[in-house]
Amino acid sequence: KTRLAKKLKSITDESVRDKMIMEIKETLAQTFVTPCQDPMDAEYRRMQYVRYADDFLIGIIGSKTECIKIKVDIAKFMAEKLRLELSEEKTLITNAHDKAKFLGYEIFVRNCNFRHKDSKGVMKRFGKGSVILHVSMDTAKNKLLEYDAVRMSQERRKTVWKPKPRSYMIGNKVEDIVAQYNTEIRGFYNYYAIANNIFSIGNSFGYIMEYSLYKTIAQKLNLTMVQAKLKFLLDKKFIVPFKDTKGSTKYRIFYDGGFKRKTAYRDSLVDIIPNTWHTPKLSLMERLKAGVCELCESNSNIIMHHVRNLSHLKEDTPWNAKMLKHNRKTLAVCES
Fold first, then answer.
1. Where along the chain do its domains lie?
2. Is the pLDDT assigned to residue 312 strictly greater than 80?
3. Which class for 298: exposed (0-12), middle (13-18), buried (19 or more C-beta within 10 A)?
4. What does pTM read for this prediction?
5. Which spans of this chain does the record mark as coiled coil (predicted)?
């Protein structure tokens, strides 16, 4: 493309220029569909392992035959070394382009390119071959059904989600109802915050929860949903004032933090066993046998000084200050 573009600048014949422009466009189109690497290089293999509790996921760059062999080896290792049985029903071999479910996420490898211009105006492609984390709409639906915050209705042969009041909460205070909704929304968002589609799924989840909140409070206060919403709406925020145990006025604000995707933390060291050193405390007899004053470090006539309670001590003497500093009721000292 670069060679043809340079040659095009020196050509003045319009018919030749049009022909070369078409050739450049065809070359560019072919470039965008040509892979920049061979994903199934016979000389390249890689394995990535991720575990949480007793669930694990293994990503393999290789053939399906190799995956089957690795699965057999894992089952053998678990049976012989860990005395555990690998579940054949739950342990699946899935093509990377198909969605594999793991810890509530759907994981797959993107098989399409996206194009955009960089800062210099050059068209570039990106996205193909990248690992994608998705949270499904069914996951959000099941969570809303678990909270009893949504009902499903059929309209024009389509399933429509509609917020519903949570009648079992109307016995709570309004500020406690808002706090409960905030906790549930933040819990869902924080768990799925690294999903690539959390913005769209999170906003759908948040919308249903928001209007379920309005309907719940409306039912509690015997108001319409609009009246309940406007009653506590201030500067486009849903704010509920209340009195704490000391009589001070506090405010409970409904969640409005959005559902922006968060970047996954990649430097986790959770599986590295810490090299911890435990230094035991010396017993009373060991401190006496050492024969060293813990104040002046002399070696003559060591006795054990003891107090009944540290709370009564003041830092008015060196030994009291030492005992308070080390939070110790005993001190090995010399008679002098």
1. 2-33, 137-253, 284-334
2. no
3. middle
4. 0.66
5. none
